[in-house]
Amino acid sequence: MKIVGLMSGTSYDGVDVAAAEFTRAGETLRLRPLGTASLDYDDGLRAEIGALLPPGGTTIEAVCRLDNRLGEVFADAAATGVELAGGAADVVVSPGQTVFHWVEAGRARGTLQLGAPARVAARVGVPVLSDLRSADVAAGGQGAPLVPAFDALLLDPAAGPRAALNLGGIANLTVVAPGAPVLGYDVGPANALLDAAARRLLGRPCDLDGARAAAGRVHPGLLELLLAEPYYAAAPPKSTGKELFHAGYLDDRLAALGEPVAADDVLATLTELTARTVAAECDRHRVTEVVAAGGGVRNPTLRGRLAALGAGRWRLRTTDELGVPAQAKEAYAFALLGWLSWHGLPGAIPSVTGARRAAVLGSWTPAGPAYAAAASAPPRRLVITP
Predict the structure, then answer these.
(1) How is residue 171 annotated by DSSP?
(2) What's the predicted TM-score (pTM) here?
(3) Are 366 and 127 in contact (CB under 8 A)?
(4) Digit-coded pLDDT (tens) for 199-213
């Protein structure tokens, strides 16, 4: 079965595309990577998404327009994925762009992703799976993270506790250990605050290669204020996003500090924040290895600091060493979730999300020849029988 997985994360810089072929042999599911690609959002679309995100206000008109514009971008991405799959795919998984994740008193109440799946289905002519988080939220879960289903199958816990780390806009961690339930949760910001600072202080979308952070020094007072965030002390299951960690959040902490901080020092401090919060969680679970993926692995300053904090306790490596491109791991993970949903199997793990039961994820948008046999000829009339 060939599946195209799409992913656009909290950094909202573009869509990652992965095409995979799945074959099953008994209890083993084999994933053959068929190729990856990335489609960048243009500056205008990034601005539209940013304007819609909290704490900004919006209108239903703006939501509708963005939903359909994103749908066109995801349709292009899906078409690219079908090409990678050799010109034909069975399913496309298009989870959309998260614009709001409603968490109240530690409990997820709802979640909203935009991306007009009908436009994707119309473009590629195969069934599209979307809205992957809502079923878990309806079952009492956080609706995130969902990638632990992939991590739990990929990582062998027999050698001891291991962690999978994703460094996207938000850093999330999956922990597998012998005889223990799978754990997974959002640790805190990875690139979210770093990118917000780069836009605000440098006029750039990011601190490329962490160069400005490497030139700066950690500001102890600012770091102390940032580490005081209550979210870090909350017990999992938990999830977060730019509803909490946005540019205004950083502005508030800088204002509370009451003294100016050089741009490079702000970036160095935010890098240290991510490294320390992630390392603390890895230490807490006494893992022996951390397998990282996501955009943050391209930041040598962040990656180097993580490696230094884990030295002597856990080894840091990337998913590339396991055959999964680090930049496309989440897209491959969503392709796997599509395979599970197609076969009526749960994709969310209750020990991760806190749900009452394991939910089969997503909503299907039908399209094209896959449904032709079920609808050979349309009916001409309807008769009501007693």
Answers:
(1) E
(2) 0.92
(3) yes
(4) 999 999 999 999 999
